[in-house]
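This follows on from our talk about sequence and fold. Go ahead and set the record down below:
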Amino acid sequence: MARVISFDVKADFGFFKKPDTNKIYLTYTIPPKPLVLGILGAVIGLKGLKEQYYERSKLPEYYEKLRNLKIGISPSRENNFPFGNIVNVYNSNNSYAYSNSNTIIREQILIKPSYKIYVHCEDQNEYFDKLVEFLKSRTTIFIPYLGKNDFPLEFGNLVEHKKIEDVPEQKGIIESIHLFNSSQEDLYASPRFFISKNPDSMSTKESIEFYENIPVDYDNNLFYVLKTARYVDKEIDFSKISLHEEGRLIKVDGKIIYLY
């Protein structure tokens, strides 16, 4: 029997490093799925990338144990998604690794990022059960953080969703990010994000449309596999989103959530 939980995560700052450049370290706005699984693994005490490197195993323990879980990510509009950011500048020397060289490091950091995370488990899974138990008691084995150990995160609002339904509709509002089928021309024509007000509406609420190429998996060499994600707060045609192997839609407590 399928089970779904959701909970909020937030921190004062967040950093999800893009591997594209070493001139300035840029961050994803949406946390990569491998990183989200790493947060879940930290909660229940599964080993991470450091142990995988020293033990020369193929994959980190948390990824082997949790990779079959599907997740959904809903960024918080209350904190002005897609969030503000700053560029932090510091040098590479410190008290325990001093050298004559002095490399200046520039790092883009998200300000007050927050998300609602959905976790879907299709079959009986001891690690999912353990995760629910730890989240209920608000305890963790390792300290989870949003991308860097400088940015410990806070959990809250754990919900075990009782009403889980399929989505028969062909259109609707998806409350989370979703992977997006599009041509290259569509992507080049689309801005990274835009925020606007509907001139035909009396509402002062701004609408948003956000695109980002995000990591959804590791390949065999532990490099990120990227897919295009989109977040919009208006009704969309479900034929435009990526379902099948990558993802699926479910309805929990009346909200349509994309899982991948």
User: Anything to note?
Assistant: The chain is about 15% helix and 35% strand. The longest strand covers residues 207-218.
